[in-house]
């Protein structure tokens, strides 16, 4: 059979062993069982660890199957399903924040809007479900990117379009912003897509802790920020509470 | 300080408790499903004790999720699956039989017998309803006839009757009461006096001693005992009436359609009942304390959301209900395929118990995507039929349809609905209007909210779908739909179970 790659076969053999009854094995143990040199096994394990398919058990230093492996085949959450499960909490968020609410998922470097709740003032508004937003210039996008280094790298490989003077078009600036987003647990777009418009968002996680979407509000800077252009703590807390409630609905452990 | 109102929604498949804040926003939800018991084809039962245990669980669950105690609730309201009937022992509190669910058709022969020569409209003048297996009166009669010893004990008031509101209020407070909306679904209440009708009780053979006292929909029926001790139980509304209330349809001419297991379009007709000539029901909308009752016309569609569930569980083409939209969007139209889900006959406006489901227009071209479309469109076309009947009876043209319920999360369905009705469809900011209505009524009863005007300020548009279908396509679709409906009729024969 031409074209088979030996290291992939070896990686598969290691995964099979780790899925077996012992569950947790050291480098020497794996090498002996498979009859492979220790450095080779170590190299494969490090690669598998990098993509999240194996993890190192801290106290013993042994290797076990990683969380990412369990997502394969089950991680995809249908956008229509996400909307259905999020309906109550997105309504509540619109009611409390008095702003329009959107839920989005990453779609080829953009944010696909899967749900939209009107701003509750009975003014004329059009449903924007199905619209695409630039990931680097929206709070929804940044909340999603902050949890997805792969998508971030891919996005940064291309050009970052500027929409306003405030859009983060420098890769370093965007990376710094995503780091800040990840550490504080919420994302903000401060007039980065539309002059005078601010959006705030937080990530939605499923049962396994994987980010499956983001929920956010958007509105004029005067309503969402204080005089120093800092997002209002109350609005941020509404967004984060909604994201937490939907995550709980999807089976995520409360945090 | 009481800062919240809770509502129990005792539904067909699950019981839920939702806690609302003063602005009418949801702050906590807990839900628990109960078993569906199918002893025979066409029979559907619930274990009333299981439901009671679940209700207590979800109330405590909703409180603990919010980290509050029962003392922070100003009141609790109840909304419930309507017509589902339970009889229980007044002494022990044990049901004498499983509850008979509204979908159950075991009283088919009994209902025909009660109609006699005058047929299904024999009692319509008094109670506003046609004779159908759907309503509580025939179910109670079946239990009295079937369970040994129950009739004698019911006549002595030792066995009590209730719909699920009554069962829960009795379990919570020890008081045997129901509200006008639930009572209006028994076929035993006179629509004008709002009291049990002696003639109807005699015709149905129901002893008055077993019946609860009929009260308004918004008043304190009693305070809870046990683990919810001290909590005022302050509203009861049938689920559809609760949704009408939650959508703040307080003026004559205002209406809504709730999309759940089945779907129900209710139109407020004001302080006078309006008789229907087009297969709609006349029912009580709500009654707040001492104020006059508000009446409603109702169009009931038996199978809408449950068709999607059937498609998921029995056909297994989708793994979850929302995925129907994903599957339906793989094609651009129904490919000429129509699905009339007359699983237990047709409800409004046809009321044909001899009809059964049909998938019409099948060709070799049809894929699972077309079937998914046909499943969704069935809900839209059935709504269209009811809207047409409503327009004819009320003499008012529907300009906008207010919708709520779980299926409003389905954008394709909502757009299709707007297309086939040729009218805007709007969803309010709280799709859970059933619970909201029960919470509103309880809140008004205890002074948490001042009155209905205050509640109107809470109603906001969350989404709107506008018609975008050419009239020729709409007309052809409706014509084909009606041809498909015609093919469901006269399927059941004398020797069918």
Automatic annotation (TrEMBL), chain A:
Q: Which Pfam families match?
A: HTH_IclR, IclR_C
Keyword Metal-binding present in the record's keywords: the answer is: no
Q: Where is the HTH iclR-type domain positioned along the sequence?
A: 5-67
What keywords does the record list, in alphabetical order? DNA-binding, Glycerol metabolism, Transcription, Transcription regulation
GO MF annotation terms: DNA binding; DNA-binding transcription factor activity
Mind telling me which PANTHER family this protein's record contains? HELIX-TURN-HELIX TRANSCRIPTIONAL REGULATOR, ICLR FAMILY (PTHR30136), HTH-TYPE TRANSCRIPTIONAL REPRESSOR ALLR (PTHR30136:SF24)
Species of origin reads Kutzneria albida DSM 43870
Q: Which GO terms describe its biological process?
A: glycerol metabolic process; negative regulation of DNA-templated transcription
Coiled-coil regions listed in the entry: none
Purpose of the protein? May be an activator protein for the gylABX operon.
The residue ranges of the IclR-ED domain are 68-252
- What's the domain of life for this entry? Bacteria
Name of the protein described by the UniProt record? Glycerol operon regulatory protein
From TrEMBL, chain B:
Top enzyme class of this protein? Answer: transferase
**Activation and inhibition:** Inhibited by fructose 1,6-bisphosphate (FBP).
The pathway this protein participates in, as annotated, is:
Polyol metabolism; glycerol degradation via glycerol kinase pathway; sn-glycerol 3-phosphate from glycerol: step 1/1
At which positions is glycerol bound? 82-83, 134, 239-240
Q: Does the keyword Coiled coil apply?
A: no
Q: Which organism is it from?
A: Kutzneria albida DSM 43870
Name by which UniProt lists this protein = Glycerol kinase
Give the GO biological process terms. Answer: glycerol catabolic process; glycerol-3-phosphate metabolic process
User: Which residues hold ADP?
Assistant: 12, 16, 261, 305, 406, 410
Which family would the database say this protein is a member of?
Answer: Belongs to the FGGY kinase family.
* Catalysed conversion reaction: glycerol + ATP = sn-glycerol 3-phosphate + ADP + H(+)
Q: Write one Pfam family the protein is assigned to.
A: FGGY_C
Question: Which Gene Ontology MF annotations are present?
Answer: ATP binding; glycerol kinase activity
Q: Cite the EC number.
A: 2.7.1.30
State where sn-glycerol 3-phosphate binds: 12, 82-83, 134, 239
């Amino acid at each position: 059979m031409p074209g088979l790659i030996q290291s992939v076969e070896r990686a598969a053999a290691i995964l099979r062993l780790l899925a077996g009854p012992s569950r947790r094995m050291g480098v020497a143990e794996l090498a002996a069982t498979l009859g492979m040199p220790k450095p080779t096994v170590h190299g494969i394990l490090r690669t598998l660890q990098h993509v999240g398919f194996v993890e190192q058990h801290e106290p013993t230093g042994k290797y076990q199957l990683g969380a990412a492996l369990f997502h394969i085949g089950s991680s995809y959450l249908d956008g229509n399903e996400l909307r259905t499960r999020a309906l109550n909490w997105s309504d509540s968020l619109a009611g409390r924040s008095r702003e329009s609410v959107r839920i989005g998922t990453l779609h080829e470097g953009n944010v696909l809007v899967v749900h939209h709740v009107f701003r509750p003032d009975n003014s004329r508004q059009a449903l924007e479900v199905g619209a695409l937003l630039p990931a680097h210039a929206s709070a929804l996008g940044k909340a999603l990117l902050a949890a997805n280094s792969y998508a971030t790298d891919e996005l940064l490989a291309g050009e970052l379009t500027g929409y306003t003077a405030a859009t983060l078009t420098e890769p370093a600036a965007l990376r710094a912003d995503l780091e800040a987003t990840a550490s504080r647990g919420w994302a903000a777009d401060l007039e980065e897509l539309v002059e005078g418009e601010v959006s705030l968002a937080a990530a939605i996680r499923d049962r396994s802790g994987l980010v499956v979407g983001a929920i956010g509000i958007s509105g004029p800077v005067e309503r969402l920020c204080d005089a120093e252009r800092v997002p209002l703590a109350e609005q941020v807390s509404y967004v984060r509470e909604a994201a937490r409630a939907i995550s709980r609905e999807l089976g995520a452990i409360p945090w | 300080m009481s800062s919240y109102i809770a509502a129990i929604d005792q539904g067909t498949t699950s019981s839920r408790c939702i806690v609302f804040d003063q602005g009418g926003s949801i702050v906590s939800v807990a839900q628990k499903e109960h078993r569906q018991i199918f002893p025979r084809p066409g029979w559907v039962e619930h274990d009333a004790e299981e439901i009671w245990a679940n209700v207590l669980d979800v109330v405590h669950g909703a409180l603990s999720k919010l980290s509050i105690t029962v003392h922070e609730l100003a009141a609790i309201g109840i909304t419930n699956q309507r017509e589902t009937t339970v009889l229980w022992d007044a002494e022990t509190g044990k049901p004498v039989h499983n509850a008979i669910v509204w979908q159950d058709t075991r009283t088919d022969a009994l209902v025909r017998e009660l109609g006699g020569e005058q047929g299904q409209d024999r009692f319509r003048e008094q109670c506003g309803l046609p004779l159908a297996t759907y309503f509580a009166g025939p179910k109670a009669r079946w239990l009295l006839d079937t369970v040994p010893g129950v009739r004698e004990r019911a006549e002595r008031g030792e066995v009590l009757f209730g719909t699920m509101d009554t069962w829960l209020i009795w379990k919570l407070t020890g008081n045997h009461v129901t509200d006008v909306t639930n009572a209006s679904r028994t076929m035993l209440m006179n629509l004008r006096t709002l009291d049990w009708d002696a003639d109807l009780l005699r015709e149905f053979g129901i002893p008055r001693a077993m019946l609860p006292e009929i009260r308004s929909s918004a008043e304190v029926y009693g305070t809870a005992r046990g683990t919810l001790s001290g909590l005022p139980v302050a509203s009861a509304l049938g689920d559809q009436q609760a949704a009408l209330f939650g959508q703040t349809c307080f003026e004559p001419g205002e209406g809504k359609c709730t999309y759940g297991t089945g779907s129900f379009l209710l139109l407020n007709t004001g302080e006078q009942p309006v008789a229907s000539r087009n297969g709609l029901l006349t029912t009580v909308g709500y009654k707040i304390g001492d104020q006059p009752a508000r009446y409603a016309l109702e169009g009931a569609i038996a199978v809408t959301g449950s068709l999607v569930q059937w498609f998921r569980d029995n056909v297994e083409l989708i793994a979850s209900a929302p995925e129907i939209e994903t599957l339906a969007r793989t094609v651009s139209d129904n490919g000429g395929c129509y699905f009339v889900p007359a699983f237990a006959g047709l409800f409004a406006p046809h009321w044909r118990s001899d009809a059964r489901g049909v998938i019409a227009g099948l060709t070799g071209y049809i894929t699972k995507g077309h079937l998914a479309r046909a499943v969704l469109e069935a809900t839209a076309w059935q709504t269209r039929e009811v809207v047409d009947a409503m327009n004819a009876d009320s003499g008012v043209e529907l300009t906008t349809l207010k919708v709520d319920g779980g299926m409003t999360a389905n954008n394709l369905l909502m757009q299709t609905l707007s297309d086939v009705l040729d009218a805007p469809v709007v969803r309010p900011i709280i799709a859970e209007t059933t619970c909201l209505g029960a919470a509103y009524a309880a809140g008004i009863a205890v002074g948490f909210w001042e009155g209905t005007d205050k509640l109107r300020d809470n109603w906001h548009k969350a989404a709107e779908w506008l018609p975008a279908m050419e009239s020729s396509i709409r007309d052809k679709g409706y014509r084909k739909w009606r041809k498909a409906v015609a093919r469901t009729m006269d399927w059941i024969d004398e020797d069918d179970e």
